[in-house]
Design goal:
The chain is α/β, with parallel strands linked by helices. Helix content is about 45%, strand content about 15%. The chain folds into two domains: about 5-45 and about 285-385, Aspartate Aminotransferase, domain 1, CATH 3.90.1150; about 60-285, 3-Layer(aba) Sandwich (Aspartate Aminotransferase, domain 2), CATH 3.40.640.10. The protein has helices at about 15-20, 20-25, 45-55, 65-80, 95-105, 120-130, 150-155, 180-190, 220-225, 235, 250-265, 270-285, 285-310, 335-345, 370-385; strands spanning about 30, 90, 110-115, 135, 140, 145, 160-165, 195-200, 225-230, 245, 315, 325, 350, 350, 365. The strands form four sheets. It has a seven-stranded mixed sheet, sandwiched between helices.
Amino acid sequence: MSKFEEIIDRRGSSSVKWDLTKTVFGRDDVLPMWVADMDFLPPKDVLGALKNRLEHGIFGYTFVGDLTADSIKDWMKRRHGWEIDKTWLQYSPGVVPAISTIIQALTEPSDKVLVQSPVYTPFFSLVEDNGREIVNTQLEYHDGNYSIDFQAFEESLKTGVKLFLLCNPHNPSGRVWKKEELTKMAELCQKYNVVIVSDEIHSDLVYKSHTHTPLATLNDTFRDMTITCIAPSKTFNLAGLQASAMITPNPDIREKIASIHRKQGFFTLNTFGIIGMEAAYRHGEEWLEEILDYLQENVRVTKDFLEEHLPELKLVDPEGTYLLWIDCTKLELSDEDLKNRLLDKGKLALEPGTKYGPGGEGFVRMNIACPRKTLLDGLERLKAAFE
């Protein structure tokens, strides 16, 4: 039996996914397949490193040292062909706080920040909560595929945008942007002097026949106008350890970010975040290859199930991530009706597409990073919701 078939009861562990269903959905009798973490154990070497550190027993002030930086540097070279300099690395408890810090560092109140909906929900709230203005260029959706309207993209940049938040691989659609698309976006941002924040948290979770390209690797000019955000949290199921990194080659931008960190009083990561991040990037590759195969099979199972039992629902074929974006528009139900059917009839908690901004109407997002038995349970509940 695959190591990923084991069902681990996460209730009572202060799990957002499993213990907050009543808070988020108004009921706790539902199967949660919403928030983006896995129901799998991380790699054994990561757990072993954390246990060893725990057994040491003293948890005084710690710092992110060269061993951790080297593990990130080696990982980026090995997995993504990017030779980074360790001096480019800055750290944050997560990609979301990293993006907030970047917004504060590189823009002023009322400045414009470009996003591409439907997109990861915090992209909107981080801009608004920091007193900046959202400029949205909605992605185009045709025949189950997402693409970029570059004319609209440029028109948005012309309005005085200062910062562009890119999601690659894209959440929620699972698109892995091609080099040509990334190049065109970067060329336009260069033309209008716009800094790019590339959220690449899902970059390790890319399926066979697709390749993730860090935007900053396209050329030196694009590299120096880009901050790349990465983390082991999605890749190795370590979100609760609160550790991420920003790769910031441009020293002027790096200093502006460091200035905000000083104002925040932030100077280091949680001890276990440091240990977990280093161990994951140093020893997690074999585990990652195994989980990608398992997740790809979960995608196939889901696609076959929908085609057989729910042909009105269209799965947007994911090129990366363990998040499935499902088009329910042919059901001709309102988003409220979709939510109520899922919760009341299916007893299934999914993310409503409306959370991801314009273009998310009529969609739901489903997390399939779970044992196959749980996935099949979820699919049967999906079927029951719409029978």
